[in-house]
Amino acid sequence: MYDKYQSPLSERYASKEMQYIFSPDKKFKTWRKLWVALAESEMELGLQITKEQVDELKAHMDDINYEVAKEREKLVRHDVMSHVYAYGTQCPNAKGIIHLGATSCYVGDNTDLIIMTEALKLVRKKLVNVLNELSKFAEQYKALPTLAFTHFQPAQPTTVGKRATLWMMELKLDLDDLDYLIDSMRLLGSKGTTGTQASFLELFNGDHEKIKKLDHMIAEKMGFAGVYPVSGQTYSRKVDTRVLNVLAGIAASAHKFSNDIRLLQHLKEIEEPFEKNQIGSSAMAYKRNPMRSERIASLANYVMADVMNPAIVSATQWFERTLDDSANKRLSIPEGFLAVDGILDLYLNVVDGLVVYDKVITKHLMAELPFMATENIMMDAVKRGGDRQVLHEKIRELSMIAGANVKREGLENNLLELIAADPDFGVTLEELKANLDPSKYVGRSKEQVEEFNRDVIAPILAQYQKELGLTAEITV
Fold it and tell me: For labelling, which of 125, 319, 426, 443 has a CA lying 20 to 30 Å from the CA of 119?
């Protein structure tokens, strides 16, 4: 156990559900389902295949004799033919019609497409659950004013809930891409060695209509809307590129969220979950490192870089196919999915346990609010008969003084006191402070949260109601 490399994606990060989708057992059972679909469709279209042979294949779809296949592969050095042989030993009456007319890519490529589609649906399920938790968080804090930042410099206030809608909006865009991709996924079907279906043309004595039906019958039996209309021996590796691009988009959205949480945790405004016995640092016992958010960023970096693998493979395929995609696909596709699965589990776990320190948030906001209130103060003074140009210059000068007091002297922001002391403004300190209600400066933040949740997120959650309720346990 400890004397060979083990992938951290399976050991530490990805869920058992996603790991099974990319497991050998899932792959080889799917091969057998495809062989059954092929034989049954060929029988229904008139080939000399009996129902008894098909039933025999169905009876042994799941009880794979792995040892027989393993021993056979040592001899013939071909994984597909080894499993054809192993299946045939369990189905002696049907062994002669297994894989009839097909090439290795019939099981290999169709299985890849089936597995990726199933994995995409699991990713969608987890993404929707993250949206569900974020919507609750946004609703809870829709009216809590907080200091907003542009360029990480204090800017006009927003609310904690409104900021959460920014994270949600990016995931909504990812969901749009996911839905489009899942809806457009097709099978390779039964295309033959160079995509011409020549072997099937021979089997069906030149009957083109039956060959076209064969493709679609197989797709229907495997739960797909159809097949790619043309191909070489393999489906276009452009499909893999599209899949990884969507995964990378999700990774980028999660990375952005993790950056914001890490910065907010530095400000002591919002923290990710921190368990009772968790250790933040081996040396500094007081530390509460945002390790979950950091892990999101780390895995996201991997997925965003992983996009290059299928892109290069797709660009360098020769004519009807080459085999330089094979080893790369075995790594880049599963690991991209396993990493995104881990990212979404972390995302869900973090959102579910976010800790909001409202008093710190208010303290930070109130320290900057006098600067942001100056425009209102100036306009009120103009209404009382003041000169806008004179008042603008005075506020600029007083703001510089107050800023210097804060930055150079470490003092509190005394801009309001400086304004109250200037007779041109004609306002008392008490009147100025009474006007510093943070809720007056957040614009439509609260209403935007309510409208976004109602009009955009609620219909999504209603559509996927049966898939909601996931929780994510982080083991390390």
Answer: 319
DSSP tag of 455: I
151 flagged as catalytic: yes
Strand partners of residue 153: 150
- Percent of the chain residues past pLDDT 90, beyond the cut: 79
Q: What is the residue type of 343?
A: I
Q: Is the pLDDT of residue 285 over 50?
A: no
Place of tokens 């999101």: 296
Q: Is the dihedral of CA 209, 210, 214, 220 positive or negative?
A: positive
Q: Count the residues in the chain.
A: 476
Any residues with CB less than 8 A from the CB of 21 and at least 6 apart, and which?
115, 118, 119, 122, 337
Beta bridge partners of 155: 148
**Dist CA 66 CA 323 (whole Å):** 25
CA angle (24 as vertex; 324, 309 as ends), nearest 5: 30
Interacting residues of 66 by C-beta distance below 8 A, sequence separation 6+ = 28, 86
Which structure tokens are listed for 80? 């597909």
Q: Which of 456, 350, 361 is nearest to 133 (CA)?
A: 350
DSSP 10: I
Least confident of 157-171, 245-259, 462-476: 462-476
CB-CB contact of 98 with 49 (8 Å): no
CA dihedral 338, 339, 341, 345 (to 10 degrees): 140
- H/E element holding 149? strand 145-150
149-172 average pLDDT score: 96
pLDDT tens readout for residues 100-109: 999 999 999 9
Q: Which residues pair with 109 in a beta bridge?
A: none
| 271 to 160, 234, 246: CA distances (angstroms) | 13, 48, 29
102's torsion region: left (phi>0), alpha (psi -120 to 50) or beta? beta
In the structure, what pLDDT confidence band is assigned to residue 375 with cuts at 50, 70 and 90? confident
pTM score, two decimals? 0.92
Cα(122)–Cα(141) distance, rounded to whole angstroms? 29
Q: pLDDT tens digits for 175-234?
A: 999 999 999 999 999 999 999 999 999 999 999 999 999 999 999 999 999 999 999 999
Torsions phi, psi for 15 (to 5 deg): -75, 160
Instruction: List the one residue out of 476, 464, 471, 474 whose CA is nearest residue 179.
Output: 464
**CA 454 from centre of chain:** 23
Q: What residues pair up with 391 in beta bridges, in sequence order?
A: none
pLDDT over threshold 50, residue 91: yes
β-partners of residue 227 are: 187
